[in-house]
Amino acid sequence: MKRFLVLLSLFLSFQLQSQQIIPLHEKAYTDSLQSITRGKLPDPSKANAFFLLSNYYRNSDSVLSKKYLDTGRILAQNHPFFTAKYYYYEGQYNLDRNKKKASVSYQQAIRSLSKFKNEESDFLQALAWYSYGVSQKDKDGYVPLVKMMLEKSIPLVKKYKNSRNLGFLYTQLAVILTYNAQFKKSEEYNNKALEILEKNYPDSAELFFTYLNSANNFCYQAHGDEAEKFLNKAEKLISPYPESSSNAFYYYSKTLLYITRQKNAEALSVIDKGIFYAKKFNQNLLAQMFYFNKYDILKKLKRYKEAKATLEDVLTEKSLAIDLNNRKTFYKQLSLLNEELGNTKEALMWEQKYSRLNDSLNTENVKIEINKLESKFNTAEKERKIATLNAEKNQKDLEVNKKNSYLWGMSLVLLLAFSLLIFLFIIFRKNKKISEQKIKEIKQQEELSLTKAILDGEERERERIARDLHDGLGGMLAGVKINFSTWSSSHLHPEKDQEFYRILSQLDHSVSELRHVARNLMPESLLNFGLETALQDLCEFYIRKNLDIDFQAIDIESKLPLNVQLNIYRIVQELLANAVKHAGASSILLQCSQSGKNFMITIEDNGKGFDKNIEKTSKSMGLRNLKNRVSYLKGKMEINSDQQGTAINIELNIHGE
């Protein structure tokens, strides 16, 4: 639940920053633009004002926004620079409505604006590149977007040094990094933005949102004191403007701070203020995020009826429930809430909805994997045929060469006979070496195929057992527990029948243990959230009172093939299990990083160490299985261990299978 709230709130911040910043004094800003549109000014000035008004109303009043955009286009017809600007604002209008149209507009804006050499043109090009990356995010992911920021947007503005636009772009990059849990890197870019904005633009909206982003970044790291410092600075900037729509974002950051500090009552009060502003300015997604935080707090306070009503409203409004994974989470939470309230029938209904949606998502994933495997098989088959044809051609060429050599040898008599013998000897040695190499490669390929078959079989069996435990036995035990809970509430007395409630508690513990076993066999977080999140969960699982685990993830791609993710997950799982069970360590450092096709794993502990030759002297399969998985991904492993601790470095090839 905590992770889900963080992801949704980060998504909200991301949506906010995908547009130009509006000044905090919004009324003065809009009044000034309206005055320009009504005044006796040149058409380009009016066109620019209409474009800015269109951008201001694009989320709150789409009809008015489109009207201003079309009026600006007409006024800009005979002015090439303002016509180029129109394409950018057309992309802004379509960004949340039709991403395909928006991407076309941004590309046209970039081509048109590149003809003009001035600061405004460079900044709009930078924004167009950034917004184009946003429009492609769902298809291409975040890596191309970050690359676009670093290689296209920021260089266009960086040449103007202390420009507020450069500070603005640094903040946008920081938001993306925070969304991908790169908190330290995000802090670096937030600090770069602050260095520019605090010195040169101390009252700007750009600085206000940089303060909020910095506060949010520290909240997600549970550093409440640092977050509060930035939130107080943001409050000083927004307090003179109680009618600004930006107040909603300030109260959302304040809500995150109170949640971080577990001050639930104060958080509820702030949420009500935030909902007021969000509704006032038609910020529907933000309003639903406030309601979702309100639900989470009410649940923690065990005010289950209020929590249930709030979550049902979020589900009905649909802003958050459009995403199927979000909806699946809502169904699961409603099932648990109804179970707490003793509403057995409703609990089972929501559990069934959760199961159907979960099965549907799993089926879709299976179809995707089947298509990938089929495509992979077809490609391999084509490559095999090409290799066969090349081998036949090489064989024929070799036969021709032998015949020619024989004819030349016969014609050169004694002198060339000796040369022929030498030549044949060299050919023999070369063919023998090639044959030995081929035999070696065939053996290695057979060993790799055997390892792949074993690992694939293990994972399929793990998945089957996990599914049977979770969906079959787990569902049955959960139903039994719900029925017992409902029956006991009307037939037994809590004080007189303590033995029954003790047994019921044991049944509940058994259900939880069963689900834990199922998740360990096939981690659900890996399938739903990817490798980095699954590894973070794994580290949190092994953390004990006397054991600290520091997990560092660096540039891990979210689109790694699932079988590669699974093998990396199992490798890390084996490393952590060995360190926890045998090392007797109080501190473990785990670092996972990716650079292109190379994936590096480093784990260090301060335990008692072990004998590196233990594989030869012990029947334990752990280290042997670990080496098999590393070999499967064509990797290499280095182990350094003594009485001061153990350090293991592994380098894998994600295309190595």
Quickly list its features.
Serine Threonine Protein Phosphatase 5, Tetratricopeptide repeat; 5-stranded mixed beta sheet; two-component regulatory system; 76% helix; Heat Shock Protein 90
Task: Explain what the structure shows.
This is histidine kinase. It catalyses: ATP + protein L-histidine = ADP + protein N-phospho-L-histidine. InterPro entries: HATPase_C_sf (IPR036890), HATPase_dom (IPR003594), His_kinase_dom (IPR005467), Sensor_HK_TwoCompSys (IPR050482), Sig_transdc_His_kin_sub3_dim/P (IPR011712), TPR-like_helical_dom_sf (IPR011990). The chain crosses the membrane at residues 406-428. Residues 363-390 form a coiled coil. By secondary structure, the protein is an alpha+beta fold. Among the domains are: 245-320, Serine Threonine Protein Phosphatase 5, Tetratricopeptide repeat, CATH 1.25.40; 436-522; 527-653, Heat Shock Protein 90. It contains 26 helices and 5 strands. The protein has helices spanning 2-17, 26-38, 43-57, 62-75, 80-94, 99-113, 119-135, 137-140, 142-158, 164-179, 183-200, 205-220, 224-238, 247-260, 264-280, 284-300, 304-317, 324-341, 344-411, 413-491, 498-521, 524-529, 531-542, 562-583, 614-617, 622-632; strands at 548-554, 587-595, 598-605, 636-642, 645-653. It has a 5-stranded mixed sheet, covered by helices on one side. Strand 1, helix 24 (562-583) and strand 2 form a beta-alpha-beta unit. Helix 17 packs antiparallel against helix 18 (324-341). The longest helix is centred in the last third of the chain and has 79 residues, at 413-491. It is globular. It starts with a helix and ends with a strand.
